[in-house]
Specification:
4 helices; mainly beta; binds fe (ii) ion
Length: 494
């Protein structure tokens, strides 16, 4: 093993910090590592070829007022598998805000749970305005570069996939919508090389949808009229369509004018899914109505005959119950816990000829953060792989594999005190195009028992058999949200 510290951020967090999302499995890292030729416990598959990337939350300064776990500074971890060897890198995403706060030695912006008027800087980012773009939400790879992004719309920060060193911000040849930004969950279609994205905000038309091609040209960008400001988090696509949404959970308009952003659920309003041809004009969007809910993440969408089918996680409790007298930490934690939201795999169907809609629950299991074999994105898939959560906390205690053809599920529990990340599916090198689970599942753990982190590799067809290989990382990592898999063949200099 060849390990080197390559960077260390200034942190002013106190040693006796007691915030539940800056301690334990959320203890932030400040050190950046390069580690090559890592030791492997078990058998590392020789046909595993590419990089698993994960974004995590790593605050380095005490917050101004209340801290929310989704506003920590972004840090990307990369575990690369090549020629039977494993390497690891981690780097902070050097956002404009991170650099400014490193220089100042303190927080300059407020987070999601505070009034913007408390910020020391009057500028900022995000759909609500005045926020810090922490770039700590999602990570994708497009046109050979890692892109990290912020869930409430901001810049796309580019990183070198091999070193995770900064490569500036996406400009799209000067056409990047800097004022509106890009939301989390841009979607990369591996078959066309296109990246589909959206952004949202407080000004009409409240939503935009766009497409970036393989040469980083913004080739499509349209405004989508909504009844008012909405807070969409994800989108879906098929070979021919993009699927946007207008969900009945949105900021209270009256409070918003006073600078307070509290989502309210409106069960009297439908869930609306908007279907637009991938290069369609704004007036071509068609809306389909369903039972009211909020959906954080869609797993996939596809066309089947006249129907368009979307799968994702229906929230049976978009506004979780909170005990009387609960403080900020408990209330916040319940709002982001999977059992608080009661997230269950669900299928929505839209007939594009007749306009008929139907929907069905696919599973009783509470899970979220679903991933599929990306070769099947936009096309009919069978398997999805999702996280199960610790009750009352935003922490993943296991994995579940759902078979949409039979309804069968398999589970794997990480064990007491061990928490995983969003688990990506890595198709085996040379995998058959029609064997969807011919590959590996990859996740990073945070192990509080041993104060370590590991990268676990599972055979996707044998989840319950447990990991086939475990790789110990140089340092225990913090928790976070999203991840991705980049096949080596998609990366320059691989
Ligand atoms: Fe997300």
């Amino acid at each position: 093993m060849d390990v080197e510290v390559v960077g260390r951020a200034l942190s002013t967090l106190p040693d006796d910090d007691d915030h539940p999302y800056r301690t334990g499995a959320w203890r932030p890292q400040r050190t950046e590592w390069r580690a090559d030729d890592l030791e492997v416990i078990g058998d590392l598959p020789e046909d595993l070829d590419g990089i698993y990337l994960r974004n995590t939350e790593n605050p380095v300064h005490p917050a101004i007022g209340r801290y929310h776990p989704f506003e920590g500074d972004g840090m990307i971890h990369g575990v690369g598998f090549r020629n039977g060897e494993v390497f690891y890198r981690n780097r902070f995403v050097r956002t404009d805000a991170f650099e400014a706060e490193q220089e100042a030695g303190r927080s300059l912006w407020v987070g999601l749970a505070e009034r913007p008027s408390k910020a020391q800087r009057t500028d900022g980012w995000g759909a609500r305005g005045h926020l810090k773009d922490a770039s700590s939400t999602d990570v994708v790879v497009h046109n050979g570069l890692v892109l990290s992004c912020f869930y409430e719309c901001g810049d796309l920060y580019q990183l070198d996939p091999m070193t995770l060193e900064p490569r500036g911000k996406a400009s799209w040849h000067g056409e990047f919508p800097s004022r509106a930004g890009v939301s989390a969950h841009p979607k990369v279609d591996e078959h066309t090389g296109e990246m589909l994205f959206f952004n949202y905000g407080r000004d009409e038309p409240y939503l935009h949808y766009g497409v970036v091609d393989q040469q980083d040209n913004l080739v499509h960008y349209v405004g989508v009229d909504l009844p008012g400001p909405r807070i969409p988090h994800d989108m879906a696509f098929t070979d021919n369509y993009a699927i946007l949404n207008d969900l009945p959970l949105f900021w209270d308009p009256a409070l918003m004018d006073a600078g307070v952003f509290v989502p309210g659920f409106h069960p009297e309003l439908p869930t609306r899914l908007g279907v637009i041809p991938r290069r369609g004009a704004a007036e071509e969007i068609r809306w389909f109505e369903f039972e009211p809910t909020y959906v954080l993440h869609w797993t996939n969408a596809y066309e089947l005959g006249d129907e368009l089918i979307v799968e994702g996680f229906f929230q049976h409790s978009p506004v979780p119950e909170v005990p009387d007298g609960a403080g900020y930490h408990e209330r916040m934690s319940r709002f982001i816990s999977l059992d608080g939201m009661q997230t269950k795999l669900h299928r929505w169907r839209m007939n594009l000829v007749t306009g008929a809609c139907s929907e069905e629950q696919l599973s009783d299991t509470i899970s979220e953060f679903g991933m599929i074999n990306a070769q099947f994105a936009g096309r009919q898939h069978r398997y999805s792989y999702a996280a199960t959560g610790v009750p009352g906390r935003f922490l993943f205690d296991g994995l579940t594999k759902h078979d949409t053809a039979t309804g069968a599920e398999e589970h794997f529990a990480f064990g007491d005190g061990v928490f995983g990340s969003e688990t990506a599916m890595a198709p085996r090198l040379g995998a058959s195009a029609d064997v969807e689970d011919d590959g590996y599942l990859i996740t990073l753990t945070t192990d509080l028992n041993n104060d370590t982190s590991e990268c676990l590799v599972f055979d996707a067809a044998e989840l319950t058999a447990g990991p086939v290989a475990r790789i110990t990382l140089p340092e225990r990592i913090s928790s976070g949200t999203h991840s991705t898999w980049a096949p080596g063949g998609d990366l320059p200099d691989w």
